């Protein structure tokens, strides 16, 4: 099978959609699929490279005015490039991950070339409002326009997926009438696994990562406004002898440092910044509890990684996060924006090591429902069914 994946964000971009797409591409290549990815160039100039068995076709790009770490494909010439690529590769299916420049242009080109399109939605308007500096008063109008635009692009796909039932329900609520299949982003349960040595290993890993040896709540993700990390900082200020480790980069770091100082916990909020791919599993293993306050998560890969690593979870009761929490069994939910409730829940988790350990075991068991291998297998079947349908459709058209 030959597959062409189109995406507007791909590593070295740091976000959940980019990481999912890279894992999908590498995993399919390991299963014997011939995988090509078309995406923006990370440096501006177009080029082709092969990494981990995946051929990357990098399109000419320009800086984004909205976010310093995001580059946009230059629209001029993109359609011609994609037409040539489709003619040369003759893929069995195209899988688009976004509905922006690459996603919409590739969808139209694939339709014109008779190639079936599978689309996965990772988008909510809230993901862009802060970057685009949309005033609060205009956000409802901007959201309606954004959902209309998304529906328009997705309507040209033969098969639409999204990571969770909550994300599928959201699309239906926003007027998308086609069938949407929830397919988990999946998690590597070998790479992300619990600490086997318990507290002694946590102490050793904290020392290696430069963390003080104290109880640790953890967040992994972008330090941007939509993630609401300030709520985590205000919560840790209300729990004695607990520190917050923040892993990730983002435009909100200086603001968050100011919040920590104002709350009097600058010495208990540790900004670890970007952590390498190799070290990330150890970051989860050195923590006691994973916390997330975001209200715009369609799944949350970081939360799944934490669960696979055997961590209890305290999460905002919003969007898809409740799918990852069995209240009282692997963690707790708290009302979005209520850092007092968040603090109480975290304090409850870390107060009893035996209960914390049992919750971590339950998290691991729940994460096993999201095996990456299962997600890869499902996507491969989707591509084959789409390709088979295209062949049958073409044959019927010829007969007619």
Based on the model shown, name its key terms.
globular, 8-stranded mixed beta sheet, 6-stranded parallel beta sheet, 16 strands, single chain, alpha/beta, 400 residues, 14 helices
Q: Could you please describe the fold and organization of this structure?
A:
The protein has 400 residues and is α/β, with parallel strands linked by helices. Helices cover 42% and strands 18% of the residues. It has 14 helices and 16 strands. It has helices spanning 16-30, 78-89, 101-112, 126-132, 139-154, 165-173, 199-209, 229-236, 253-262, 280-285, 301-308, 339-351, 353-367, 372-399, and strands at residues 2-6, 34-40, 47-51, 54-59, 61-63, 71-73, 93-96, 117-120, 159-162, 180-182, 215-220, 242-247, 269-273, 289-292, 313-316, 331-334. An eight-stranded mixed beta sheet has the order 3-4-2-1-7-8-9-10, with helices on both faces. The protein has a six-stranded parallel beta sheet with strand order 13-12-11-14-15-16, sandwiched between helices. Helix 9 links the parallel strand 12 (242-247) and strand 13. Helix 11 (301-308) packs across helix 13 (353-367). The radius of gyration is 22 Å and the shape is globular. The two termini are 28 Å apart. The mean pLDDT is 93.
Topology, please?
Blueprint: E1 2-6, H1 16-30, E2 34-40, E3 47-51, E4 54-59, E5 61-63, E6 71-73, H2 78-89, E7 93-96, H3 101-112, E8 117-120, H4 126-132, H5 139-154, E9 159-162, H6 165-173, E10 180-182, H7 199-209, E11 215-220, H8 229-236, E12 242-247, H9 253-262, E13 269-273, H10 280-285, E14 289-292, H11 301-308, E15 313-316, E16 331-334, H12 339-351, H13 353-367, H14 372-399
Helix pairs in contact: 2-3, 8-12, 11-13
């Amino acid at each position: 099978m030959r597959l062409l994946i189109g995406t507007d964000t791909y590593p070295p971009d740091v976000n959940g959609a980019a990481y999912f797409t890279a894992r999908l591409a590498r995993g399919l290549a390991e299963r014997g699929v011939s995988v090509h990815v078309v995406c923006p160039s990370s440096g501006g100039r177009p080029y082709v490279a092969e990494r981990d068995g995946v051929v990357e076709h990098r399109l000419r790009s320009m800086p984004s005015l909205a976010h310093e770490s995001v580059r946009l494909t230059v629209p001029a010439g993109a359609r011609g490039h994609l037409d040539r690529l489709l003619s040369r590769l003759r893929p069995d299916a195209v899988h688009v991950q976004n509905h922006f420049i690459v996603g919409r242009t590739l969808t139209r080109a694939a339709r014109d070339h008779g190639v079936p399109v599978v689309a996965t939605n990772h988008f909510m308007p809230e993901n862009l409002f802060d970057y685009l500096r949309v005033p609060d008063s205009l956000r409802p109008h901007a959201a309606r326009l954004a959902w209309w635009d998304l529906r328009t692009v997705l309507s040209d796909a033969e098969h639409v997926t999204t990571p969770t039932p909550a994300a599928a329900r959201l699309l239906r609520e926003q007027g998308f009438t086609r069938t949407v299949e929830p397919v988990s982003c999946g998690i590597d349960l070998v790479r992300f696994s619990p600490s086997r040595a318990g507290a002694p290993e946590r102490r050793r890993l904290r020392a290696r990562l430069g963390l003080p040896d104290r109880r640790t709540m953890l967040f992994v993700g972008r330090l941007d406004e939509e993630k609401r990390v300030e709520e985590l900082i205000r919560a840790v200020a209300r729990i004695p002898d607990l520190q917050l480790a923040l892993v990730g980069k983002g435009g909100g770091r200086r603001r968050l440092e100011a919040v920590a100082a104002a709350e009097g916990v600058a010495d208990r909020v540790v900004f670890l910044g970007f952590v390498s791919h190799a070290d990330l599993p150890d970051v989860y293993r050195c923590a006691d509890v994973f916390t997330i306050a975001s209200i715009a998560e369609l799944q949350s890969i970081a939360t799944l990684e934490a669960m696979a690593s055997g961590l209890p979870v305290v999460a905002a009761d919003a969007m898809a996060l409740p799918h990852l929490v069995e209240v009282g069994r692997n963690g707790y939910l708290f009302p979005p924006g209520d850092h007092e409730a968040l603090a109480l829940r975290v304090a409850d988790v870390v107060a009893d090591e035996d209960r914390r350990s049992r919750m971590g075991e339950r998290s691991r068991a729940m994460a096993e429902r999201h095996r990456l291998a299962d997600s890869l297998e499902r996507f491969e079947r989707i591509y084959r069914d789409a390709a088979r349908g295209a062949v049958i459709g073409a044959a019927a058209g010829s007969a007619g």
